[in-house]
Amino acid sequence: MTPITEVEGRRVALSNLEKVLYPATGFTKGELLHYYATTSGALLPHLRDRPVSFLRYPDGPDGQVFFTKNVPPGTPEWVTTAEVPRAEGPTRMVLVQDLASLMWAANLVTEFHTPQWVTGAPEEADRLVFDLDPGAPATVVHCCEVALWLRERLAADGIEAYAKTSGAKGLHLLAAVRGASSERASEYAKGVAVAAERALPRLVVHRMTRSLRPGKVFVDWSQNAARKTTAAPYTLRARAEPTVSAPVTWAELAECREAGQLVFRAQDMGARLQDYGDLMSPLLAGTHAAELP
Questions:
Q1: What pTM does this model have?
Q2: CATH number of the domain located at residue range(s) 122-291 in this protein
Q3: What residues have CB less than 8 Å from 264, skipping those under 6 apart?
Q4: What is the tens place of the pLDDT at every residue in 127-161?
Q5: Where are the domains of the chain?
Q6: Helix residue spans in 121-209 (DSSP H)
Q7: Alpha-carbon gap, residue 80 to 95, rounded angstroms
Q8: Is 277 left (phi over 0), alpha (psi -120 to 50) or beta?
Q9: Residues in domain DNA ligase D polymerase (predicted)?
């Protein structure tokens, strides 16, 4: 029998709590749900009003992993949804607006991915994002060097960037923007990525071509497209261990000498939030949003 828990007045079914999702560490589904519940204060503001894509891994990272964009079958009627335009026609997607809907979604065992716009304005970017992906033997240490260069380049245009680990191998840089279409944001981001490759030719590549990427950092600017999504801050990832896409300080990037320094797991995040709060909270205020040049 599936346990029913009341969350903020909503009845939420939470199943298979003892199921081990991450065999390398013994991390269970119950621990995953506990993680999302205890980090909800930081996570929810980054999900709110954004149609969420779920990268689901119900049997752990070694099982089937698949994207769910449409409203999943069996979604409770109290979960907020929104119509989202697509090239093939409009569809309905989930909005994770509160703790109850977060816990319902977390019970599906998921990474949370969001676009760089909010519902109601699907072609208007309010975020700029760069995904820094190292090609072996490059590591996140090399991503840090690139991130620091990008920070200065963006600052020259009046854009303040914030960094987080991807929760996998690399880094994400985000900035709040206003008054730009997704197409314009993509165009600007591509220009910055090209400039990074010119400035750091031995370290950076701006094209996705696999043969160009070994030993370099791919500066992926394409996630600014309206149809693309990026792993949300604080989401768990479907990796060998329960790693988190964790916001980090610029000092941590400047001081990084080994890849392990920037690996954060679910059990690390309580202390980080206590010490730092939400390092990406300025993205939410709107006061730090910049116009693209």
A1: 0.95
A2: 3.30.70.3300
A3: 165, 167, 243, 244, 246, 272
A4: 999 999 999 999 999 999 999 999 999 999 999 99
A5: 4-118, 122-291
A6: 140-156, 182-199
A7: 5
A8: left
A9: 28-279
